[in-house]
Write a structure and sequence with these properties.
This protein starts with 14 loop residues before the first helix and ends with a helix. About 35% of the residues lie in helices and about 15% in strands. Helix 3 runs parallel beside helix 4. The chain is built from 7 helices and 6 strands, in the order H-H-H-E-H-E-E-E-H-E-H-E-H. It is of the alpha/beta class. Helix 4 links the parallel strand 1 and strand 2.
């Protein structure tokens, strides 16, 4: 009998793969540093086909991960001491990054609604966005944790509130393709909704 644990097999790996891995392992930097030709075009086509969002090639910028990208945005769009609003519960490293950059972490607690999903208190959200110290809203779409996918009307409402109060939105959409379209749930890119 041959064991097949979660797609692991007791078969020899192809020599070409072993050689490629050995060559890569001999390099001391293991981050995501390569940008193969065609990567941005493939991403651009994927966003257009999957989300109906046409993104110009010059809009893409390489970043090693979501947290370092978030830090760059916090530095760019909020000064030390400014309020940065997040919906909680939230992926911990993003909250830690906001505080580490000397910005005030402002939390809006999502509450479980009648349908079981995490919902904002829209009135309380508007009051918080109207605060003069709040300069930036970091969204997770879908929300992390919880997988809350924002409907078009909700995205439009959040965009309208932020525009009314001059709050910049940074939207972490790294998990956008993990939505369950079979359940009638469709991801709405914040930048596409605002176009």
């Amino acid at each position: 009998a041959m064991p097949m644990w979660v797609a692991d097999m007791d078969l020899l790996c192809a020599p070409a793969l072993v050689a490629a891995l050995q060559a890569r392992v001999s390099h001391p930097v293991y981050g995501y540093t390569m940008q193969p030709p065609g990567m941005w075009d493939a991403l651009r086509r994927w966003l257009l086909v999957r989300h109906g969002w046409s993104v110009p090639m010059e809009a893409f910028t390489f970043a090693p991960n979501v947290v370092s990208s978030t830090v760059a945005c916090v530095r760019a769009f909020a000064r030390p001491g400014d309020g940065v609003l997040v919906f909680t519960p939230l992926y911990g490293p993003i909250q830690t990054a906001v505080k580490a950059e000397g910005r005030a972490l402002v939390c809006h607690r999502l509450r479980r609604g009648p349908s079981g999903q995490l919902d904002p208190d829209w009135g309380e959200l508007e009051v918080t966005l109207a605060r003069p110290d709040v300069k930036l809203l970091i969204m997770c779409s879908p929300h992390n944790p919880g997988g809350r996918v924002w409907a078009v009307a909700e995205v439009d409402h959040i965009l309208g509130l932020c525009a009314a109060h001059s709050v910049t939105i940074v939207s972490d959409e790294v998990h956008c393709d993990l939505t369950h379209t079979a359940w009638g749930v469709k991801h709405v890119p914040f930048a596409h909704a605002s176009a």
